[in-house]
Amino acid sequence: MDTMAFDRSTDDDNDADLDDVLLPGTALFHGQYRVGSFLNSGGFGITYLAKDNLNRDVVLKECFVPTFCRRSQTRVRARSEANKPHLDKAIRGFMAEAQILAALSHPNIVRVHQVFEDNDTAYMALEYIKGHDLLEIIDEKKASLTPDQIVTMARKLVSAVAHIHDQNLLHCDISPDNICIRADGEPVLIDFGSARKTSLGIGQKHTGFSMVKDGYSPQELYATGGTCGPYSDIYSLGASLYHAVMGKAPVDCQSRISAIIEGRPDPVKTLARTVTGYPPGFLAAIDKALAVQPSARHQSAGEWLEAIAPHHANVYRNVALLRRVVVTHPAGQPQAQTA
Fold first, then answer.
1. Is the model more confident about 113 or about 206?
2. What is the mean pLDDT of residues 234-245?
3. Are residues 70 and 164 in the same domain?
4. Per residue in 249-262, pLDDT tens?
5. Which residues contact 144 (CB under 8 A, 6 or more apart)?
6. Does residue 328 lie within any of the structural domains?
7. pTM for this one?
8. What CATH number does residue 209 fall under?
9. Residue 208's closest CA among 67, 68, 93?
């Protein structure tokens, strides 16, 4: 499988230029890390495959916001005096993300090894994950997901979200492109760049950059100053699982609200009434997670986990993905086989 990249961006215009990428062999943090190759860039950072001083593979995530900064040799500089406060804010948010990740310990959440500052910016050394993100698996048919595999994956991800909430945190950017599936089929939740701390179950004001994704973000994340809580992550995970089940993302929440206000049917069809082949109650639990109004959703990930747990005797069995292998016959006609 391909290397899993982090911090994907949906806006290519905001991606870093290749001239901004550190060259292979670049040493960081007093030689503890050495850049191997460029992996990916997004609106908030650049990721590299690297080696640590024990010759282990790691992913290095560099805080680099091309809108506000540029590369001068290896150093990161603000594009102008007016951009300096924005770059400083980005670095503070990046460090906050690292602190959040360091506080989490769950088999289905990406692990951070170290955070450090170099080249006038900040870096995270993250575990190296081989796999594809869930969006690639669904849209590009990188592998086949059966109902049983989706059920197993769902329970592990709900458990991971419960752990996040138990630490008084919210992810605030759960979506298929932020769910990595390892080569062994284990799901891993990544990218905590939009995460927030909570107080009495209410999300505090975010100090970094917020991310809203049509189809996955609940209506409260669209509103300026909107109040978010555990139910916000529950909606986003429900939308991601809906995508896995249906093969397409649900209609965005704003359009759903407009339809309801105008007296039209909700454009998102309930899974429990349209899909078969899943354990009793599993699809209804996703439908509840996808309720437009926060009060109608599961109020905690633990509540959701309890709703689906009785149907999972094999909770810890990995999601075994089917790998597509293309075999070229002598006639030159490729045929897809399943391994």
1. 113
2. 98
3. no
4. 999 999 999 999 99
5. 321, 322, 324, 338
6. no
7. 0.80
8. 1.10.510.10
9. 93
